[in-house]
Amino acid sequence: MKHIHKLLFITALLSSSMAFGQLTEDPDDRKDQGRDPLRTQTPEGRPLPFGQRLRFGGGISNIRLGNPFSIGVSPVVAYQATERMLIGIGGTYNYTRYKAVTTTGNTVPYLTYNQFGGRGFVMYEFIPSILPNLYLHGELENTTIQQIENQNNDRTTSYALTAPLVGVTYSQPISRRFGVNLTALYNLNYNDNSGIARQVYGSPFVLRISFF
């Protein structure tokens, strides 16, 4: 009989200890029992301040080796507008160096392109329950292109291009406000008959790695 009383006492003690632990555990741990940590709210449900929704970073793009040679950099500022949507702006600079070959096999002087401008973009996580961190991506890039013919007397010509780009971005989070992003876009305004577009963009497809 005494053994039964001891067993009941130990069972009651363990049960009360478990219940006390559930009531006193860390709130940051308890939030994971319901929903994932939010990107726009604190664990207590209060909206995050504007500054804590901002992301800063950038990336490299348009990397081509050989002829033509090109490389680009793009600083970015993004804002977590909602749990599933990011909006942002960025600057763009691309350098391209190209040597054309005529039909007779002769080469012409190098052409240098300095491409600079700005862009605005929107990213929307459209199927988080199936593929989290996969975003639809749309942006508008406005670019000025400066073409320099490298001869004894360099001649400079300027062009302006506007490129609407659509595609997807996969973001691998490193922290709540920083991640590695792989973006694949299609240039809706690409014209294969345009020599400037061919030399600067290479193709209607734009691949980009960025960090923000």
From TrEMBL:
Region Disordered: list its residue ranges: 23-51
Query: Which keywords label this protein?
Result: Signal
Which residues belong to the signal peptide in this entry? 1-21
Q: Where is the composition biased (Basic and acidic residues)?
A: 28-38
Q: Does the keyword Signal apply?
A: yes
Can you name this protein? Outer membrane protein beta-barrel domain-containing protein
Q: Which organism is it from?
A: Spirosoma profusum
